[in-house]
Amino acid sequence: MAGYSKRKFAYAIFGIALFLELAMQTFWRNQFGPYWSPAVWLIAGLSVAGAALWLFSGTNHAPALPAKAPMLPFWGQCLAIAVLFLACCTFVLFQIWPVFDEFPIDPLQSDVIPSMEIYVKRLLGGEKVYRTLHFPGWDVEPTYFTMNWLPYVVPELLKIDYRWLPLGIFYGMTGIFVGRMLWQRRPIGEVALKTVLPFGALWLLIREDRHIFGHSVELTAVGFYLFLALTLFHRRTWLMALGIVPCLLSRYAFTFWLPAYFAMIWIAKGFGPAFRTGLYTLLGVVLLYIIPFWMKDPGILTRGLDYYEKTAIGQWQTQPWQEPGQKPFHLNRGLSFSLVFFDYWPGALEDKIAAARKVQFWVCLIAAAGMLIGFYFWKKRGLKPEHYGLVSLKAYLVLFYGFLHVPFSYLFLVPLFMSLPLLFEVGREKSNLPPG
To answer: Where are the domains of the chain?
Structure first.
């Protein structure tokens, strides 16, 4: 009984941390001021990972639960959840549709989607994709890797708004996770609740920060990371690589975690699977970026990085539409510790940014190394590698974004929604039910 009491406590921590993490990005954003709010968000995100690790480690040692007769036959459960899932999709669709009308695609408001349109149209027109992008009054050096824009060939060919694609990807990935829960014969109440929660989070984000969905397409990157979560330590090495490549060629925030992941594969499966996964990953990068684009102009990578750093300096300044003397808008929203460096690190603006980047570098490097060491310890305790992979990826992304030096709010959708794989996976207690 003591074990179950501890698990109930872990579930309580997990639920509270999930709520707090979402609240700090929606209705409680900057609630504790620009210095403490990032700390609360960071602690909440790490607590989600820590509580999940606790629950995962206890699942393998928990006694079998008595089987309960299902309320509905399996086909009836599938039908009920399908209706609920479609209802949630429809509800969010009608919430986000007015946002697209409210924020027409206009480079004077945001050049994110207009840039993608240029990349895609150049590709389809047989032009050189990676060359300077020209907008009214300014030029932009191409900074997006292939998977930031290549998926939008589909809406371009279909002549539909690019912003429908990320929503469709999110629906698809969420549907896969819901289907897995049904296949695992989870209790119908648990599946129903976990079906609704992702859409509830999406609705809150739409309500509190509409411009995220009007000016960006970050749910595509969220979908890539959700797919990565599905492929962690998969028995097929090509599928593990397929989960890595889209993330690596879009939001490559997991850069330091990735070598640790390859080392974990080596420890868990042997050198051969780790080597083949790395080889397939390299092949994907070569085919999608190196050969078609980088080899034609090797300078595109350095020019893009240089331009990105120049834009960072601009975001660390008071914006033209702000009152003189106000703190830089994006730094002052309570999403990362960047404002601490802006206010307290000595030197010029470039020195402050360099310090913020250096701290982020060392935090991520130390975290990745610690996660690799932790993998060896938890594996000896019988924890499944895929469970540890989910926890470590979530924790790493929270740390990476917590110290992000250009904290655009839309970027924080990735670490937030990486709580979903943990939410979908916890609760798999041993039972006498037949395996799904």
So the answer is: 1-63+237-436
